[in-house]
């Protein structure tokens, strides 16, 4: 069954603005990962945050994790047209089978 | 130097046919996966193999049969194709880590299957 739910489903912003995407999940997790998918392409791993971490940075990406609220957010700062893609959160459930369960994704459009 | 490759990229076929999709990874990973992405972009795991052994089989019809001749290859054979099998199929791989930890997965470019 689906674990993560991204919010919003679609987001359209101007180049240079920040983009924030949220992910909520249902059960306890081992880690949470964010992936990007460009149109017609495979998924690319962006960042992994473990259940004992609260925040992680990678370049223009910032991920937060709140295990008490079972939610995570992905912030992309100073967005570029090349950031246009779908963004998925995925979780590894704690104590469960070792599989990555994906949300439905947020479609981000960055207008030049 | 492609990390995870799949063939073919596109596959158009008639209902009832049998088809195969091939996947290879040159990352030296121990675990490989097959995912199905439907028309609404929802991505769901189908199978995973670790060192050629089936680890996960997610209630997939037995018309779908994965085969792993070695740990660098995981092929997907589909018998008696149905309209509902139309989707994009992604292969992925990951490196084994100490028990209780999991790493990122590397995805192939996908195979778009259209069943007419």
- Binned strand content of chain A: over 45%
Structural class of chain A: mainly beta
What's the gyration radius of chain A in Å?
A: 13 Å
- The assigned structural class of chain B equals mainly beta
**Proportion of residues in extended strands of chain B:** over 45%
Overall shape of chain A: globular
The average pLDDT score of chain B comes to: 91
Largest interface by Cβ-Cβ < 8 Å: A-B, 24 and 25 residues
Count of individual helical segments of chain A:
0
Radius of gyration of chain B from CA coordinates: 14 Å
Oligomer: heterodimer
Topology:
The complex is a heterodimer of chains A (112) and B (116).
Chain A lengths: L4 E3 L2 E5 L4 E6 L4 E9 L5 E8 L4 E4 L2 E6 L4 E6 L8 E9 L6 E3 L3 E6 L1
Parallel strand pairs in A: 2-11
Antiparallel strand pairs in A: 1-3, 3-8, 4-5, 4-9, 6-7, 7-8, 9-10, 9-11
Chain B lengths: L3 E4 L2 E4 L5 E7 L5 E7 L5 E8 L2 E5 L6 E7 L2 E6 L8 E8 L11 E2 L3 E5 L1
Parallel strand pairs in B: 2-11
Antiparallel strand pairs in B: 1-3, 3-8, 4-5, 4-9, 5-6, 7-8, 9-10, 9-11
Produce a short descriptive summary:
With 112 residues, chain A is mainly β.
Report on this structure.
The complex is a heterodimer of chains A (112) and B (116). Chain A is 0% helix and 58% strand. With 112 residues, chain A is mostly beta strands. In chain A, strands 2, 4, 5, 9, 10 and 11 form a 6-stranded mixed sheet that branches. Chain A has a 5-stranded antiparallel sheet with strand order 1-3-8-7-6, with no helix packed on it. The model of chain A has no long low-confidence stretch (mean pLDDT 91). In chain B, strand 4 and strand 5 form a beta hairpin. Classes of the chains: A mainly beta (112), B mainly beta (116). At the A-B interface, strand 4, strand 5, strand 9 and strand 10 of A face strand 5 and strand 10 of B.
């Amino acid at each position: 069954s689906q674990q993560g739910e991204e919010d919003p489903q679609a987001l359209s912003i101007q180049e240079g603005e920040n983009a924030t995407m949220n992910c909520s999940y249902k059960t306890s997790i081992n880690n949470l990962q964010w992936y990007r998918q460009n149109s017609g392409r495979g998924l690319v791993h962006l960042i992994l945050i473990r259940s004992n971490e609260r925040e992680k940075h990678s370049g223009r990406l910032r991920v937060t994790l709140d295990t008490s609220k079972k939610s995570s957010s992905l912030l992309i700062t100073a967005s570029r047209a090349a950031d246009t893609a779908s963004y998925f959160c995925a979780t590894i459930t704690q104590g469960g089978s070792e599989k990555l369960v994906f949300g439905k994704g947020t479609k981000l459009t960055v207008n030049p | 130097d492609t990390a995870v490759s799949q063939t073919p990229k596109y596959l158009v076929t008639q209902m009832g046919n049998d088809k195969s999709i091939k996947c290879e990874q040159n990352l030296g990973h121990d675990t490989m996966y097959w995912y199905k992405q439907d028309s609404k972009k929802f991505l769901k795991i189908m199978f995973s193999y670790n060192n050629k052994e089936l680890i996960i089989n997610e209630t997939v019809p037995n018309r779908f049969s994965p085969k792993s001749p070695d740990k660098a290859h995981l092929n997907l054979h589909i018998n008696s194709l149905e309209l509902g099998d139309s989707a994009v199929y992604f292969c992925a791989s990951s490196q084994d880590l100490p028990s209780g930890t999991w790493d990122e997965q590397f995805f192939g470019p996908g195979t778009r299957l259209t069943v007419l």
